[in-house]
Design a protein that fits this description.
Strand content: 5-15%
Distance between the termini: 65 Å
Number of strands: 23
Largest sheet: 5 strands, parallel
Helix content: 25-40%
Number of helices: 23
C-alpha cells in the first residue's frame, strides 16, 4: 500500500512540475520574478567571490533554500485546499485556516526576497572588504569521529543539525532531503504511512513464534552504512498477540511507553529485540549517535496530571506492586513498623503494603509520596539498565541515550519516574528533548514569567543542560528532538531569525553537540509527507497540527538554522574552549528536596538566574558528583532552600568540608531527612570553609557573597550592561586564547537592546574584534535584542 502511494505521489509530482514549467510565463508571480532576479544577482556575486577564493558556503545554502521555497510556494498556491486542511488540524490556526492558506504562498515568496536581500548585502560587504568571514568547514557526514568531548570533522569540533521525522517515506539517499542544508544524518524512528512500518527498533519485529519479521528487519538493515546516524527504540505499543497472551502487558502504561516496564513478558520480548538490534547494527555508522532507548519517557503518577487523559499510570500492575514492596523492604531494612510509622498505616508485613495510583497530591511532602517517587525513579532506571544490557550483549560498545524532556527536570513535578542524574550516568550520550519559544503560548491571556525580562524562554535549556553537563562532563550531548522552532501550543508564522540564531547558539554553548529539530515534512516537490495528506489516519496528540506554522512554511527560519550552524562551525574550537571553562561555583541539587517541596525547582531557578548574567559558567553539585568527581573542579558549593536531604547527601557535604572545601548554606537548608524528621547533626567546617548565611538574606546578597568566594577563579574581564531595565539580559562567557588575550561570547537574551562596556581589572584593552565579521567594535558598543557576539580581545 505504501509503495503504491509513493509511486502515485511521484507521478502526480511530475505532472505538477510539468504543468508549472509549461505555464511558467503566465503563473510566475511578481514576488517570484523579483526573487529570481535577486538569485541571478547573488549568483553573479558568488562567481566574483569564488574568483577571489572567498568561501561561499553561506550563499550556496541561501540559494538552496530560496529555490526550494519558491517551489514550495508554487505547490501551496496550486493546492490551496490541501494547505487549508493542514492549517485546520492545528487548534490555533484552524479558525482562520482559509485565510492562512491563501496568504501562505506570497508570505513564503516575501520571506525568500528578504533573505536574498540580506544575503546579497552581506556578500557585497565581504567583497568590498567591510567584513571578513571565517570559512565554514565542509561536513564529511560519512567520517565524523565521536569522542568523549566533541564530534570531530577532519580533526576539528563540529556541531551537527538535522530534522526529526524527516519527510517520512523518502529514502535516506535522496539528496533533495538528506544534504548539507537540511542535514545528512541517517536515522530510524519515524513511523511510515502504515502503522508500525518504520525504520525504528520496535516490538513488532518479533513474532509470536519467536522468529523475527524479516521485512521489518530489512527496513533496519537496509540503512546505508555511509553516514553518521542514530536509531530509535520505539515503545509506543505492543503487538496484539502479546496482549492476548497476557492482558496486563500495558497496565501502568504512559503516553509514549505503551507497556508495563515491570511485566516479565514485556521485558523478555524487548530483551530479545534489543539483542537482535545490537547484533544487526553493531559498529555501523548509523549508530554513532547511539540508540535512543526511549522517546520522551515519563510515568506521571499524581492525581489530576494531564497525561492521565491519555491513559498514563491510571493503575499499576501486580508486577509493579510487588517490585514496590520488595524495594520498600530493602529501604526499611525489613522493618515494617518503621514504614507504618512513616505512612501512618498498619500493614502486617511488606507483602501486604498497598498504594493507590494515581497518588493524591495532598501526600506531597509526606513519606508515602517520597517513597513512591523514589521507587518510580528506581523502576525506570531498572528498565533502561535492562534494555541497555540486552542491547550490549551483541554490541558491547553500543552508544546509548534517552530522549528525556528537560522540562521535567526544570519543573516542580516529581512523580514522573525520571532521575535525570542516574539516567544521564547510565547512558554513554547525554540525551534530551529541550524546548524554547519566542512568544506567548497559544490561548494564554496573561504574560508568561519570562516575558517580563527576556526575549524568549531560555531557562529550560540553560538550567537543565548545565545540570546534565555537570553530571557527565565527558559525554557528548544529543538533542534528538529540539523544540526551539515550534511546540504543540506555540508556533509563530513570523518567527524572528534573531531568536532562531540565539537559541541554537545558547544550547550549543551549554553543551549540545548534535540536534534534530521538530520537524521537516516537505517532500521534494513541496507537498507534505504522506502522513499529513488527506484525512489523518494516525494517533498522535502533537503531530496532527505540527505542519501548520512550522519551519516547512518559513524560509527565513529554515535558512537561519543552517546559517547559524555554518557560523558556529567556523568558530567551533573557540566555542568548545568556552564550554570547557572550569565551573568554580556549584549549586547543590538534592532530588530529595525536589520530591518533597512544591516549589523547589522554581526557587532553585531563581538562584540560578541571579548568577547567570555575571560572566561565570555555572555547574551543579550532588552527593554523587561530590563523591565521584574531582573536588578541585570547583571552589565552592552553594546550598539554597534545600531543607530535605538524605544522610548520604549530608555526609557528602560534610566530607567535602573535612577535606578542605567551601560550603555556603542558608539557614533553612539541611535540616530534615527525606521523611521530614529533624536532623540533629549540623555541618562543621573541618579543614574547609563553612559560610552560613543569615536568615532572611536577599537573593541578590547571596549571589554577591557567593561570587566573592570564587573571585580568584573569575576572569579579569568586566562587562557592564545598560538595557533600560533593572534586570541584566546579557549572558557572557570568557576564555583565554593563545595570544594572551580573551575570547568572549555574549548572548543578549533580554527583551531590549543593550549598551555594553568592556574593561579589564588590571590591563588596558587594545582592541575588540567581532570574530564573525572581523569588524572592530571598541570597548563600548550595542548588542541588539537576541543578538549574538563572539569577540576577540587583545
Amino acid at each position: 500500500m505504501f509503495k503504491n502511494k509513493l509511486i502515485l505521489k511521484g507521478l502526480a509530482s511530475m505532472l505538477l512540475m510539468t504543468s508549472i514549467i509549461s505555464c511558467e510565463q503566465t503563473l510566475t508571480s511578481p514576488l517570484e520574478k523579483e526573487a529570481l532576479a535577486k538569485i541571478e544577482i547573488l549568483e553573479s556575486l558568488m562567481q566574483d567571490a569564488k574568483s577571489k577564493s572567498i568561501d561561499v558556503s553561506r550563499e550556496e545554502t541561501l540559494l538552496w533554500f530560496s529555490k526550494e521555497f519558491i517551489k514550495f510556494a508554487n505547490w501551496d498556491e496550486a493546492n490551496m485546499a490541501q494547505v487549508e486542511k493542514a492549517f485546520g488540524y492545528d487548534g490555533h490556526y484552524k479558525k482562520d485556516a482559509a485565510k492562512h492558506a491563501a496568504e501562505l504562498p506570497d508570505y513564503e515568496r516575501t520571506k525568500v526576497n528578504e533573505i536574498l536581500d540580506n544575503g546579497i548585502k552581506q556578500l557585497q560587504s565581504v567583497l568590498d572588504g567591510s567584513i571578513k568571514r571565517r570559512p565554514a568547514p565542509k561536513i564529511d557526514w560519512g567520517n565524523i569521529e565521536v569522542t568523549d568531548k566533541a564530534l570531530l570533522n577532519n580533526g576539528k569540533p563540529i556541531f551537527l543539525h538535522d530534522y526529526f521525522s524527516k519527510t517520512v517515506g523518502q529514502p535516506l539517499t535522496n539528496s533533495a532531503v538528506y544534504n548539507d542544508y537540511l542535514g545528512n544524518m541517517y536515522h530510524g524512528g519515524e513511523n511510515l504511512y502504515e502503522e508500525h512500518q518504520d525504520r525504528a527498533i520496535n516490538p513488532w519485529l518479533l513474532n509470536e513464534d519467536g522468529t523475527f519479521d524479516q521485512d521489518r528487519l530489512k527496513l533496519l538493515t537496509d540503512i546505508p552504512d555511509t553516514n553518521i546516524g542514530f536509531l530509535y527504540l520505539w515503545n509506543s505499543g505492543l503487538p496484539e498477540w502479546l496482549h492476548k497472551k497476557d492482558s496486563t502487558v500495558a497496565q501502568g502504561r504512559s503516553l509514549f511507553m505503551g507497556l508495563d516496564i515491570d511485566n516479565p513478558n514485556v521485558r523478555a520480548h524487548w530483551g530479545k529485540i534489543a539483542k537482535k538490534a545490537g547484533a544487526l547494527t553493531n559498529g555501523k555508522k548509523v549508530t554513532q549517535l547511539g540508540f535512543v532507548l526511549a522517546n520522551e519517557p515519563h510515568w506521571f503518577a499524581e492525581k489530576g496530571y494531564w497525561t492521565q487523559r491519555y491513559g498514563e499510570m491510571n493503575s499499576i500492575s501486580d508486577h509493579t506492586k510487588n517490585k514496590f514492596r520488595t524495594w520498600l523492604s530493602k529501604k526499611y531494612h525489613g522493618n515494617i513498623s518503621a514504614l507504618n510509622k512513616n505512612w501512618e498505616s498498619a500493614f502486617k508485613d511488606f507483602n501486604a503494603v498497598e498504594i493507590t495510583i494515581p497518588i493524591d497530591t495532598k501526600y506531597r511532602g509526606k513519606p508515602i509520596w517520597y517513597d513512591w517517587c523514589r521507587f518510580a525513579m528506581f523502576r525506570s532506571l531498572d528498565w533502561f539498565t535492562h534494555i541497555q544490557n540486552e542491547l550490549r550483549t551483541n554490541a558491547p560498545e553500543a552508544p546509548t541515550s534517552i530522549k528525556m524532556q528537560p522540562r521535567y527536570f526544570a519543573e516542580n513535578y516529581r512523580s514522573h519516574g525520571l532521575d535525570f542524574e542516574t539516567l544521564t550516568e547510565l547512558t554513554s550520550i547525554i540525551g534530551d528533548d529541550a524546548k524554547a519559544q519566542s512568544s506567548r503560548t497559544f490561548g494564554r491571556k496573561n504574560p508568561e514569567p519570562w516575558e517580563e525580562h527576556y526575549a524568549y524562554s531560555w531557562e529550560e535549556v540553560a538550567f537543565s543542560y548545565d545540570f546534565m553537563e555537570s553530571v557527565a562532563p565527558n559525554k557528548i550531548h544529543f538533542n534528538s528532538e529540539t523544540h526551539f522552532l515550534s511546540l504543540s501550543r506555540w508556533k509563530d508564522l513570523n518567527t524572528p531569525v534573531d531568536y532562531v540564531r540565539s537559541v541554537f547558539w545558547l544550547a550549543t554553548l551549554h553543551g549540545m553537540d548534535a540536534s534534530t529539530s521538530w520537524f521537516w515534512a516537505r517532500d521534494p516537490d513541496g507537498s507534505p509527507e504522506d502522513r499529513l495528506e488527506g484525512d489523518l489516519d494516525f494517533w498522535d496528540p502533537g503531530l496532527g497540527g505540527a505542519y501548520a506554522g512550522s519551519a516547512n512554511m518559513q524560509p527565513q527560519m529554515a535558512n537561519e538554522i543552517a546559517q547559524v550552524f555554518l557560523d558556529m562551525n567556523s568558530l567551533s574550537e573557540a566555542i568548545i574552549a568556552l564550554r570547557d571553562e572550569r565551573k568554580p561555583l556549584r549549586i547543590f541539587y538534592s532530588e530529595t528536596s525536589a520530591i518533597n517541596k512544591k516549589t523547589h525547582m522554581t526557587e532553585l531557578f531563581d538562584l540560578y538566574e541571579s548568577l547567570y548574567f555575571e560572566g561565570i559558567p555555572l555547574g551543579y553539585a550532588t552527593e554523587k558528583i561530590i563523591t565521584k568527581q574531582d573536588n578541585a573542579s570547583w571552589d565552592a558549593i552553594l546550598v539554597y532552600k534545600t531543607p530535605y536531604v538524605t544522610d548520604k547527601e549530608f555526609s557528602a557535604l560534610q566530607n567535602y568540608l573535612i577535606e578542605g572545601g567551601t560550603v555556603i548554606t542558608d539557614a533553612e537548608s539541611l535540616l530534615k531527612n527525606e521523611y521530614g524528621a529533624n536532623r540533629k547533626a549540623i555541618l562543621t567546617k573541618g579543614k574547609g570553609n563553612l559560610i552560613t548565611l543569615e536568615k532572611g538574606i536577599s537573593l541578590k546578597a547571596i549571589a554577591t557573597k557567593s561570587l566573592n568566594e570564587v573571585k580568584e577563579s573569575r576572569s579579569d574581564l568586566i562587562l557592564t550592561e545598560s538595557n533600560g531595565t533593572s534586570q541584566k539580559g546579557c549572558t557572557w562567557r570568557v576564555t583565554k586564547n593563545a595570544k594572551g588575550g580573551y575570547i568572549v561570547n555574549i548572548l543578549n537574551i533580554g527583551k531590549n537592546e543593550a549598551k555594553l562596556n568592556l574593561k579589564l581589572k588590571k590591563d588596558t584593552i587594545q582592541s575588540v574584534t567581532n570574530m564573525m565579521t572581523g569588524e572592530e567594535l571598541g570597548t563600548t558598543f550595542v548588542i541588539k535584542k537576541s543578538g549574538v557576539l563572539m569577540l576577540e580581545i587583545e
